[in-house]
Design brief:
This protein has about 140 residues and is of the alpha/beta class. About 45% of the residues lie in helices and about 20% in strands. It has six helices and six strands. The chain has helices at about 15-25, 35-45, 55-60, 80-90, 105-110, 120-135, and strands at about 5-10, 30-35, 50, 70-75, 95-100, 115-120. The chain has a six-stranded parallel beta sheet, with helices on both faces. Bound molecules: adenosine-5'-triphosphate. Adenosine-5'-triphosphate binds next to helix 1 and strand 2.
């Protein structure tokens, strides 16, 4: 079976953790971030890492983005960057686009753009920890 390929845009705390875990699970991961230092730090651990602006459509095309199975927009605080990147990933034809949102309205905007899955990391983690706290034998939720 073909190895699934992921592109993670934004290698902050959330994006880098996600990218590293996908690598550990045996998938191929391309990481993209504006921050060159961050990209240099991560390049040893990812299949490929590129310092670039993800809102640069030509750059995304040159990386062959449409061939990736799943794109993750892990940009939070800059909502404009998040939304523009999500639109480009959808338009370029990535099958599944996942994006992180930092507010309910941000999440609604991402859903309206056709993002396949919107993640609210802090909210989702709060729910998960609550379940773990009241169900001691539950290893993972
Ligand atoms: P975290 O909590 O995961 O650290 P955050 O919401 O604080 O994330 P942001 O500052 O919004 O993080 O962005 C996460 C990463 O996305 C940063 O490393 C930033 O350099 C990168 N980033 C922001 N805009 C772009 C862009 N247009 N292209 C590529 N990377 C970007």
């Amino acid at each position: 079976m073909k190895i699934q390929q992921f592109v993670v845009i934004g290698l902050g705390r959330f994006g880098s953790s996600l990218a590293l875990e996908l690598m550990d699970l045996g998938y191929e991961v391309l990481g993209v971030d504006l921050n060159e230092e961050l990209v240099n730090d991560m390049s040893a651990y990812l299949t490929h890492a590129v310092a670039a602006d993800a809102t640069d459509e030509d750059m995304l095309k040159s990386l062959g983005i449409r061939n990736f199975d799943c794109g993750i927009v892990a940009i939070g605080s800059d909502i404009q960057m998040s939304i523009l990147t999500a639109i480009l990933l959808k338009d370029l034809g990535i099958k599944t686009v996942v994006a992180k949102a930092i507010s309910v309205l941000h999440g609604r905007a991402l859903e309206k753009l056709g993002v396949d899955r919107v993640i609210f990391p802090e909210r989702d983690m709060g729910v998960r920890v609550a379940h773990q706290l009241v169900t001691p034998n539950l290893l993972d939720y």
